[in-house]
Amino acid sequence: MNIFSTPGAAPDVLNSILPNPKQLEQARKALYYTLPKAGVGLEAIQEHLTNDIAPGLNRASQSPNYYGFVTGGVTPAAAFADGIVTKFDQNVQVHLPEETIATVVEDAALKLLLSLFDLDPQKWVGRTLTTGATASNLQGLACGREYVIEQAARRVGLDHHVSVAELGIVSASKEARIDHINILTTVPHSSLTKAASVLGFGRAAVKDVGLKDGMRWRFDLALVEDMLRLQNTASIVVVSCGEVNTGRFATAGYDDFLSLRNLCDQYGAWIHVDGAFGLFARLLPLGNLDTIRQGVEGVELADSITGDAHKLLNVPYDCGFFFSRHSMQQVFQNTNATYLNSTANITDVVSPLNISIENSRRFRAMPVYATLVACGRDGYLDMLERQIRLATQVALFLWSHSEDFELLPDLKNEDVEERVHNVFIIVLFRARDERLNHDLVKRINAANKIYVSGTIWDGMPATRIAIANWQVMPNRDLDIIKDVLNEVLRQWRIERDGNSR
Q: What is the pLDDT of residues 36-76, one digit of tens each?
């Protein structure tokens, strides 16, 4: 049984990831900027979309060689299910079990996800699907805000419930004698600062409490405790699982996470895990890739976890998930809307609109359910191991060309074996020649055989290869990557030597 169908894509997908300038220009010129009075009709719009617009789209999801950002593909099962989603167009907001099975499918999909990550559904009572990890992070901070203010109120001896959801952040904080709410994390992702802005914490509330010795994605637990014990201050601790540039993890094993949990319990802090792609390391069995597996040991001790399904789960955009060990209804309950009540008398399925941001929601659970059942744990483990294998092979190639490339992060106490063992699905590197490094991303992408994205690391430009597509074939894809990088070096040397004459 082949659960994925044949890995790989049509030759035009492998050889052309981005539309060419002519296709982009044609698509722009063909767009309607004025609303037609009569309309062009179904047949004309189908032809317009197929011949004018579609050629101007990239093949990020279709190509196994798109390594920009962290972009997954769409498994065949998920693609099939997404067609059903559009056809039946369910609004998955109110649990109406006598009218549609949609909310039951979502609950089943979420339980399957918890099982995939070896998390107990009995303990993770709060669970929902979102538009992505950005929305899930916002949801996690909102739940954390409610919790830490309530904990602060108890510490000052208040015997009544103090709720941000009811009173607002200013009044609730004042009553709980809280002047500041800090968000403690390491190398914060931009979605975290966005969530802090939206929720009224402010971007300045996000504090980097990472180590300063090079491993800055790791928590400095002494600094964490110093921040947690600040007077009139409440804290939410966000664990980066893993860091977006390097793929490294904020904790180094169960004991590390347990120490963090004990500190947070002592000071009434909430722990939120941003596991957008790193959470999938929990699929790895113990004894296999232990260095990576240790980075997700202990996340079951957190209060909430977020992840992206449209990354390593390989379902269509936009789909994320959020898990909490606490009820979420205090924060997200729809009040004074009796027409939105469930008709079910006894049920363990909560209406999604009462535990998530949106009231109107696409049936994004269907592709999640379909791909998990079709592929199973073994299918996703196979996928992840192929992705990691390609990443480590790319890292070894870069290391073997150390006169031209620098494999990052550059830790003086790591030898080549340790460095490669710490590679998850992201490879970070730069060219040693400063002039080449400045244009490296542009030169790589100009070949249109692979696509990479750029970032800044240690104040200098760097290149990221993030491997997330289900179609990965390590040997085939390594050859393509090596050919592109070797050609970039060859062309650069020609230009350099010509300019030096």
A: 999 999 999 999 999 999 999 999 999 999 999 999 999 99
Per-residue pLDDT tens for 337-387?
665 676 655 567 999 999 999 999 999 999 999 999 999 999 999 999 999
- The strand pair at 233-240 and 180-185 is best described as parallel
By the 8 A CB rule, do 10 and 59 touch? no
Angle at 480 between CA 477 and CA 486, to 5 degrees: 140
Q: Which amino acid makes up residue 290?
A: D
DSSP string, 272-330: EEE-TTGGGGGGSPTTSSHHHHGGGTTGGGSSEEEEETTTTT---SS-EEEEESS--HH
Q: How far is CA 469 from CA 189, 387, 388, in A?
A: 22, 8, 11
CB 257 within 8 A of CB 251: yes
Query: Degrees (nearest 5) of the Cα angle 213, 216, 222?
Result: 75
Write down the pTM of the prediction.
Answer: 0.94
Determine the Cα–Cα distance for residues 211 and 226; give it in Å rounded to an integer.
Answer: 14
pLDDT at 14 over 60: no
Structure confidence at residue 10 (pLDDT): 40
| Confidence band, pLDDT 50/70/90 cuts, at residue 289 | confident
The two tokens of residue 327 are 């009820």
Alpha-carbon separation of residue 480 from 20, 43, 312, 388, 404 (angstroms): 20, 40, 21, 17, 18
Q: Are 169 and 145 in contact (CB under 8 A)?
A: yes
Q: Which amino acid is at 62?
A: Q
Cβ atoms 165, 330 nearer than 8 A: yes
Q: What is the pLDDT of residue 6?
A: 46
Q: What is the pLDDT of residue 334?
A: 87
CB 137 within 8 A of CB 195: yes
Task: Provide the pLDDT for residue 347.
Answer: 64
Helix pair angle (190-198, 133-155), 10° resolution: 60
Which amino acid is residue 384, in one-letter code?
A: L
User: How many angstroms separate the CA atoms of 368 and 130, rounded?
Assistant: 12
User: 327 phi and psi, to 5 degrees?
Assistant: -65, 145
For residues 243-271, give the mean pLDDT.
96
Contact partners, residue 477, CB within 8 Å, separation at least 6: 64, 65, 390
The values of phi and psi at residue 470, to 5°, are -65, -20
